[in-house]
């Protein structure tokens, strides 16, 4: 088994000193960047200028989560800003396959995400077009919410399908990941784990990254 991937979310960081906050997690595998438009989700965060600023601050790959309507309109800005992976929501686009192909042609990894209420079954046929799927284990929009364990059924379905078809597709989970929940998510089959409040709320964020990784590896 490859090492679990830990992706601290800068949504829980102190934006007045973003570069220093990213520098506090040197052992992070990816940095998760939460883009919210106030329409797709009831909260507004920041745009591609912050993806670019994060890219200037670190060499760690940026995992950019677009919680926005019309993702087609914005993916290029984030790829040009340095996104390593671009995650859009299947609920926000009519044509996820064309968008994934476009993202890959531009040289980034393509991922889709689903709200907790969106079933995975209809989207299994398009998995081969994607490098990653992000399962939301909270309603997207805010950090610091409680983990929804029922979302692990979706992870198990994905794990079975990806393994059965021999696909190279990362399963990532986002929302309420902490010392208390990461082992269950790892057991269900997740490869990558977003953690916002658990990392940036810790006394030492980098130690927390290591601890979360070892809890996931042991599961
Ligand atoms: C929620 C965001 C998450 C958020 C996670 O809509 O997509 O990435 O930052 O925060 P925690 O880990 O605090 O649930
Ligand atoms: Zn996110």
From TrEMBL:
Its Enzyme Commission number? Answer: 5.1.3.1
Where does it sit, as one GO cellular component term? cytoplasm
Q: Per the annotation, how and in what number is the cofactor bound? A: Binds 1 divalent metal cation per subunit.
Is Isomerase given among the entry's keywords?
Answer: yes
Name the reaction it catalyses: D-ribulose 5-phosphate = D-xylulose 5-phosphate
Q: Which residues does the annotation say bind substrate?
A: 9, 65, 141-144, 174-176, 196-197
Tell me, what is one Gene Ontology molecular-function annotation carried by this entry? metal ion binding
Cofactor entry: a divalent metal cation; Co(2+); Fe(2+); Zn(2+)
A GO BP term, please? pentose catabolic process
Give the pathway.
Carbohydrate degradation
Keywords from UniProt, A to Z, are:
Carbohydrate metabolism, Cobalt, Isomerase, Manganese, Metal-binding, Zinc
Residues that bind a divalent metal cation: 32, 34, 65, 174
Is Zinc among this UniProt entry's keywords? yes
Enumerate the active-site residues: 34 (proton acceptor), 174 (proton donor)
InterPro entries assigned to the protein according to its UniProt record, in alphabetical order: Aldolase_TIM (IPR013785), Ribul_P_3_epim (IPR026019), Ribul_P_3_epim-like (IPR000056), RibuloseP-bd_barrel (IPR011060)
The UniProt entry, under PANTHER family, shows: RIBULOSE-5-PHOSPHATE-3-EPIMERASE
Q: What does this protein do?
A: Catalyzes the reversible epimerization of D-ribulose 5-phosphate to D-xylulose 5-phosphate.
Q: Which family does it belong to?
A: Belongs to the ribulose-phosphate 3-epimerase family.
Q: What name is this protein filed under?
A: Ribulose-phosphate 3-epimerase
The species this protein belongs to is: Corynebacterium meridianum
Gene this protein is translated from = rpe
